[in-house]
Amino acid sequence: MGVKGKESTIVDPKIAASTPVSSRIGAVLVVGGGVGGVQAALDLAESGFKVYIVDSTSSIGGVMAQLDKTFPTNDCSMCILSPKLVECGRHLNIEILTCSEIEGITGKAGDFKVTVKQRPKYIDVEKCTGCSECAKYCPVDAIDVFNEGLSERAAVYVKYPQAVPLAYMIDRDVCIGCGLCESMCLADAIHYDDQEGERELNVGAIILAPGLEEFDASIKSEYGYGKFRNVITSIEFERILSASGPFRGRVQRPSDGEIPRRIAFIQCVGSRDTTCGNSYCSSVCCMYATKEAVIAKEHQKDVEPTIFYIDMRSYGKDFDKYIERAKEEYGVRFIRCRVSSVSEDPETKNLRIRYENEEGKIVEEEFDLVVLSVGFESSEGIRELAYRLDIELDEYGFCKTPIFHPLETSKPGIFVCGAFSSPKDIPETVMQASGAAACAEGLLSPSRGTLIKSKEYPGERTIRGQPPRIGVFVCHCGINIGGVVDVPNVVEYARTLPHVVYSEANLYTCSSDTQKLIKEKIEEYDLNRVIVASCTPRTHEPLFQETIRESGLNRYLFEMANIRDQCSWVHMHEPEAATEKARDLVRMAVAKASKLEPLERLSLSVIPRGLVVGGGLAGMTSALALAEQGFQVYLVEKEKELGGFLRHIHYLLDGSETKKHLEDLIEKVQSNKMIEIFLEAKIEEISGYVGNFKTAIAIGEDREKREVEHGVVLVATGGEEYHPDQHLYGKDPRVLTQLELEERLSSKKFSGEPQNVVMIQCIGSRDDTHPYCSRMCCSEAVKNALKLKEVNPKSEVFILYRDIRTYGIAEKYYLKAREEGVTFIRYNDTNEPRVVEQTSDEGGKVLAITVFDPTLGEEILIEADFVVLSAGVVPPKANESLAKMLKVPLNEDGFFLEAHVKLRPVDFSTEGVFVCGMAHAPKSIEESISQARAAASRASTILARDAIEAEGVTADVNDRRCNGCGLCVLVCAYNAIEIDEEKKVAVVNTALCKGCGACTATCRPAAIDLRGFTNEQLVSVINSF
Amino acid sequence: MTSVEIKSESKKIEDMDKEWEPKVLAFLCNWCSYAGADLAGIGRIQYPPNIRVIRVPCSGRVNPFFLIKSLQCGIDGILVSGCHPGECHYVSGNLVARRRFAVLKSLMEYIGIEPGRLNFSWVSAAEGEKFSRVVSEVVKEVKALGPVKRLVKGE
Amino acid sequence: MAPTEEFEPRILGFLCNWCSYAGADLAGVSRFQYPTNVRIIRVMCSGRVDPTLVFEGFINGMDGVMVLGCHPGDCHYLTGNYYAERRMKSVKSILEYIGVEPDRLLLDWVSAAEGERYAAMVKGFTEKIRGLGPLDKEKPVEELMQKLIAAREAFAQHRTRWLVGKEKEMVEEGNVFGDKVSQEEFDKVMIGSLRKEYVTNRILLSVKDDALSAREIANRLGVPSKDVVRSLINLERDGSVAVAEVSDSSPKYRRI
Asked: What is the spatial distance between Cα A70 and Cα A843, in angstroms, rounded to a whole number?
């Protein structure tokens, strides 16, 4: 490889075998437009690459668009996804190819030629306005795929009302060609002569994000899916719960529209089931079933949900708390069992479930509705895609990836993210998507910026001197707002307010069709201020600001009224008072909007270097990922050597060793010229802001000072093993932690003699002081149990557990451990195992463990040579001081709290700061690597730019009023204000000003004001009462 | 207090007096308390609807003048809420606010405004539950004080 | 209601101006005698007979309706009678679906020269209807009326009219994609569409005054409740019905 200068860092031999640096194509193909594909596309486009998204359906959004709410925050799925879809839809450097499939591929990493076949839509995407007239009249009934067959759509259809792109298409399979739609279409968008098209795309890398299919529940015939109308899949139930679903969010059952009171959820349908070939765990079903139970209960108070499960796998961040709330606040019933069969009462269409309870008794119970929690599986289409691209799949049909390269397929230059590589939830998918983007960016960094266009906005309209003309758009948010607040009433009220010349209600104000509508109304009514009354400005303000900017209005001529998060959601039982409040909030917004003025954004330069805090697996991976992209990195590690937690992990579930991988990684980091490593280093101070941070570091024993400047910060401080104080740990040398056992096993200190080993799970996890699950201990225990069996098959291993959480592919090894004779005994909070030392029959001192065995129904006593405690992961103490310096939050457990649990899993709300690895929450090696790459990708969206736009909200001094007293200088925490001694006035450095307004509130002669939150504006709001 | 208790609490407030409901104006900083209020929404933690929120970048932005102005406009109680000490997005804005607020409060007491009408709290972005609790408490207290009389224009 | 033996059927006849009407005149000129039960409406062509008019006849108390046109190939307007044939076939299928004997509708051809054939046809049809008895025998009149009105509305919908109008072209020449649609496939869509419209209209009529649950509607209509649920979903989406109340565990729908 021709290496020189910045590019000299790419050392991956796989990539080295690819196209020469100079001729790599600065474009990436993303296959699949679900949340993973969309995230990868946005990251890539933001950091200077042209992106093509190919989706086999008619619009992007994937499965997430079908979901009602997301766990564990119960965020409305469409609300958080829609802004990303809209952003994708209008991004200048993202081209979306719908109804398209990959036909073939030639070339190699850095320069692929991909043939894409586009099925005809018969409707011109450019001309179609999405008005729906055609669908209203179409005489052909076809199944509504998006609503999972619960309602009907016409042969001309759009996937869902907020679809991006919002254009109808004709389903040729059911259309009989009567021509009615053409006669109804005013936009002249229908072209029956549309032909199959072919495109050849030239890209440097490919990211696969095709997702997975749901398991076909009719295969498990004992549950009666397809036979009994009231047996439905979880995704169908998701549609039933959705405000945009067939029943508008009312919980009703398909057979007769009655409200089902007794709802049963059957877990593991098509997962953890060798009879259908899917022996893996689908990872998300326990959580989504609980979520659906909770939401059903929220929608319909008297619903009584019951979840039939095997192990409760709520292993993720804040998941266990969610389960507890479901039990205690919502009264969701959890029954641990396997359901043997479902039968239907032909008269009432109710269902009878037979199951064996924990006491071993066969119980029969009647339900009104049965929801099958279907797992994920590979599909024919996905296998076909893998075949065409010539990539390897694993035994289950998932994309095969090495543990230490979880985002790479078997073919260089083709990367993977999301459920295609193994079942996973939304945040994991988003992390992998960003991570895969980082892989592509690393490969293509020399060609960054070569194929992109930059956005051109229309000139800004001058509004100075014009009286305010305000438009108010009130969002129903499905039923999230409209179900509580009387939206039409609010719309009417808005019309009566001063300066309001237009007001209307929208089903979803954030959808892309509404953006178009807002622009039309701005033009039609000559609006010069826009108000959206919907959700929180913290997530949606940028979207609407972009919309009004596109119609020539300054971004800051926009105001939001938060009538959902802070009104309809929190006053659900007081619709009248909530409506009154919503009216007030709109009036306050109007009062402020009438005083809004256009603001300018300052352009800030970016220092193209990163600071990575923590030299463990995550830290080193993200440092390398940034270096690969040509950015210089400072890597700060508190210990004397790199490696972190991974130093204590010696082998993996599949038995392979980690040592070489770790050594390789350390070697790569150490030899990389772009990475400067500080060992035994402590961060003393961080100042500055996105693009321009300054950090003081004390290095080595003699605390040598060093100051570095950088544009971003990546937090990768890792986790530590919990230090147990129970079960004789520390008192008896035969009581070990899993890491200590692993150390002995790997250093062959364990004798070949058969041993009795008892492992106890959840030590320092899921208890009062550590209420979270440490996620990896179940796999750790299984791994070490298998190793013990390997050393001597005669060893007896007992694992005392609460729930076995070997999610995903790890389930395979749980099965293997059972096969090899490892004994699993479940205990619960009320009868925890007890460990004592006692004298054995032979007179020696042995460890005796008493535990209640639910299968036998009695207490048993196990004598053990060793007791191994599966100690959880705890956050390092130093997180607290770092969080303070960075001004980012920690969660209640002491791990870093990301900006958004679902869609911004590596970002903080503070720009330019990112998190990855166990600093975020306990996680596996693959997950840490994916997240580390994700953090690098997110960081590169900043580092790749020459400059970023600063906020327009900054302080401004009126020279004539200022008397130069200097009070503002005293309160400013950023040293952004100085006194011009000559003129005796305060001067604000806008680049440093963060717009807090402390100076404004202090200034006596009201000379210094905060743009966007001026005294005049705020007083106007107060005066509106 | 759990959200269930808060619910019954706000119910009690309702039953006490059907005729008069206080209006409480809250100044919430964008980074912590406003996000905490959003989190209460995401968690569907219910609280009394008497509150109206003005979003400000930082609690340090709240000019004492705004508070007096609010009371003049017939607002019965005020809540200013910012980040916890040491967590301020703007380093120390919340501390500036706190100091300023203490001074104002004693001044207000001097001119006969009950201290219960002016409230200050720290609510972080992760404290949805705390936010709802604070609102419930403030509303309860202001309700007990009755409508604001002093300062209101025209009275 | 008069007993059957005294029952005198009321019959409406749509006669095309050029053949059948002239045939009827010829019967008169020739003094061919036939029963008095038929009342005639002259139309220019049998193709003019809108299916809704047939239902209008039944709704207004007719026990039978006959539509007479020129013999195939003899139409004064070339193809009007072919359209009539296709239309009346659909009407018959819906009549059967709603429980009205399809034989109460007669479509036949009478030329200007066939006075005798006309007289015989009237006689035969009158006897047939006499045999069938009154339209509203053994049925509550109100329910029958709702059925007929719903059926008429089904034929009044734009999409069904479009299909009715396009049938010949699509089956004989080709659809917008240039493919010929088989009669079987077309009938499936046509009848499916009509039935769906019919069920929809019956639901709308049922919930005009009362709020009803899907189950109650299904019992009234004699249609499976899962089909009613599907129609309700569409009606709610279009804004035609809404859930007015929830009693016990039954959401009750009412027309808006």
From this structure: 58
